[in-house]
Amino acid sequence: xxxxxxxxxxxxxxxxxxxxxxxxxxxxxxxxxxxxxxxxxxxxxxxxxxxxxxxxxxxxxxxxxxxxxxxxxxxxxxxxxxxxxxxxxxxxxxxxxxxxxxxxxxxxxxxxxxxxxxxxxxxxxxxxxxxxxxxxxxxxxxxxxxxxxxxxxxxxxxxxxxxxxxxxxxxxxxxxxxxxxxxxxxxxxxxxxxxxxxxxxxxxxxxxxxxxxxxxxxxxxxxxxxxxxxxxxxxxxxxxxxxxxxxxxxxxxxxxxxxxxxxxxxxxxxxxxxxxxxxxxxxxxxxxxxxxxxxxxxxxxxxxxxxxxxxxxxxxxxxxxxxxxxxxxxxxxxxxxxxxxxxxxxxxx
Length: 349
Description:
Blueprint (H helix, E strand, L loop, with lengths): L1 H14 L2 E7 L4 E6 L4 E6 L3 E6 L5 E5 L11 E9 L2 E12 L2 E12 L2 E10 L14 E4 L2 E6 L17 E6 L20 E4 L4 E7 L4 E6 L6 E6 L34 E3 L5 E6 L12 E5 L5 E7 L2 E8 L7 E6 L5 E5 L3 E6 L1
Antiparallel strand pairs: 1-24, 2-3, 3-4, 4-5, 6-7, 7-8, 8-9, 10-11, 11-12, 12-13, 14-15, 15-16, 16-17, 18-19, 19-20, 20-21, 22-23, 23-24
């Protein structure tokens, strides 16, 4: 029996996914995207954007102005988009405005190993004195830009449409409220809001095949969520949640009419950060699966979704022991992750 158990353990180890380190720095790699098959662009929480060539190993970094590094805030997500033929880097960051720190969106023009013309596009209207829950993930859908903002540690404002706390926004590529947003004509509501009632959504992904926008967010003690994001919907925080206060008691109910239920939720917490759908060709068994980077639970979480419902989940890379901040499919077909220890790795099934 002991021999059989040892064989099964050895077999599971042989079948476990592997990783390969392709880049290392000394700061948290909060976001990353791909310029080409060989070039990665990264946002370091401390305020630098780094471009790295996988073949030549050449790198270049630039400091972004106005980044306030405080608590969970700093330089946050980054994406590469072409707009009317002009290449840009879009990025979110914590910005000091008066006596508070807000989530802001900016962009710079991009050319090979160069950025220029930092331009502030959007500054959120926030009620907060904390350095928590910035959200900050961005996702382009056609000519629209979705942007997540956490409740900033002021939970009641996630239900207040006068503030951007705890909201997912729909903006133009110039940082303005997109046309026909659901609250554009609503009194005492901000026109950028697409959905509300979020705690700290750090994952945001638009699935082109199903025309669906997904988000994952941190709960408090338990109650992490994966949500299908739809316009004008209320996702409940803090009125409903499966999580508890850190010191024990319930926060709210688990369900209420007029508020959305998550596709799935996790207690104990897995601390989901970035998310993606694997669309590459290097890991055939994973094609079409969604992946969530997890922080406190230090693993890569695989989710299968069929007809907008979760049908299977799997934990990967438990033995890696890394706080995984983000995950994306590379233009070369590989699956990439970034870590809070400053690594970019590829993952192989």
